[in-house]
Design a protein that fits this description.
heterodimer, A: 195 residues, alpha/beta, Rossmann fold, 3 helices, 10% strand, B: flat
Chain lengths: 195, 81
C-alpha cells in the first residue's frame, strides 16, 4: 500500500453555494464532502435525486436528465485516460485482450508467428468503459485485430479495423483459430469436482 | 415520505427525529446508513449525513466508515416491512 501513489482528493468545506448534486462543469463530478463537516449535511444513495439539490425526485423528465448526465460523466472519464501503450505500432496485426486472457492470446500470437505472420501486441486494455480515446486510432493502423475472448463460444474474434464488426468463431485461418472448446454443459451437482 | 399508510416506519422515524436533539450530538457528526428496502429510505428523511447503500451491505459500509472516522455517530437502518 505504501508503494501506491497517493490519491489526492479535495473535500468541499464551504457552505456558500453548496448543493450535493451541483456538478463540476468539466467532469460532471459531484463535490465530495467528509461527514463531520458542519453545514453540508446531505444524503446520497440509490433513489433518483433532483438535479442540483439532491432531494428525492419522482419527476420523469428529471430522471431522464440524470440518466443522461451520469452517462456523460462516465464518457468524460476518457479525457483523463493516459495514452495507450502501443508496443510497436504500424505492424500488420495486433492482438488485444483483458488480463485473464493473456495465455490464450499469447498462444495465438505464437502460432501466428510460426506461420510467418508478423504479430504485434497491444494491451491488455486497462480501461473498458470508457475505452481509451486513442484506441480506435491505434487499431486502425493494423490490417487485422485479434481479440481473444473466453465466452460461451470460447473462440477468438477477428476483424478488419475499418469495420469494427467482430466475428466470433473461426477467422478462416488455422493460425487464428483457438483450441476446440470444452463442453459448456452446466454441472448439475452442487459439489465440487470429483476426486 | 413514501411509505404505505399505517406503516410502522412512520412511528420509528418520528421517534428518532424527536430523540436525536436530546442526545446533544451535532448533526454533522451523525450518519445514517441503510441498505435496500422500504425502511432504507430512512436516511433521506433525516437532516444529517446519510448513505442509502446496496442490498445487505449497510453493516459493511458502516463498519468501514466507523474504522475511518471513529468520532462519528453511525446508525444503520435496515429491515423490510
Amino acid at each position: 500500500m505504501t508503494k501506491l501513489p497517493p490519491i489526492e482528493i479535495t473535500f468541499r468545506t464551504e457552505r456558500e453555494g453548496f448543493f450535493p448534486y451541483l456538478r463540476d462543469p468539466a467532469t460532471l463530478a459531484r463535490p465530495w464532502v467528509r461527514p463531520g463537516t458542519p453545514g453540508l449535511e446531505h444524503r446520497i444513495g440509490g433513489i433518483e435525486k433532483q438535479d442540483v439539490t439532491g432531494n428525492i425526485s419522482y419527476d420523469p423528465d428529471n430522471h431522464d436528465h440524470m440518466v443522461r448526465t451520469r452517462a456523460e460523466k462516465v464518457r468524460r472519464v476518457a479525457q483523463e485516460i493516459p495514452p495507450t501503450s502501443n508496443q510497436r505500432p504500424g505492424g500488420p496485426a495486433t492482438s488485444s485482450s483483458s488480463a485473464g486472457r493473456h495465455v490464450r492470446r499469447d498462444h495465438g500470437r505464437g502460432r501466428a508467428s510460426a506461420d510467418g505472420r508478423e504479430v504485434r501486441r497491444l494491451g491488455p486494455p486497462r480501461h473498458l468503459n470508457p475505452l481509451p480515446p486513442d484506441l480506435g486510432h491505434i487499431l486502425r493502423e493494423y490490417r487485422k485485430v485479434l481479440v481473444p475472448e473466453i465466452t460461451a463460444d470460447s473462440s477468438c474474434g477477428c476483424s478488419a479495423p475499418n469495420t469494427w464488426s467482430t466475428r466470433s468463431g473461426s477467422t478462416g485461418s488455422a493460425a487464428y483459430r483457438s483450441r476446440p472448446r470444452k463442453s459448456t454443459k452446466p454441472s448439475t451437482s452442487f459439489f465440487g469436482s470429483k476426486p | 415520505m413514501r411509505w404505505c399508510p399505517g406503516c410502522g416506519d412512520y412511528a420509528i422515524l418520528s421517534a428518532i427525529q424527536k430523540t436525536m436533539p436530546d442526545l446533544g450530538i451535532p448533526k454533522e457528526d451523525i450518519v445514517f446508513i441503510s441498505g435496500i428496502g422500504c425502511s432504507s429510505r430512512f436516511p433521506y428523511y433525516m437532516n444529517t449525513y446519510g448513505f442509502h447503500t446496496i442490498h445487505g451491505r449497510a453493516p459493511a459500509i458502516a463498519t468501514g466508515l466507523r474504522v475511518a472516522r471513529p468520532e462519528l455517530k453511525i446508525f444503520v437502518v435496515h429491515g423490510r416491512r
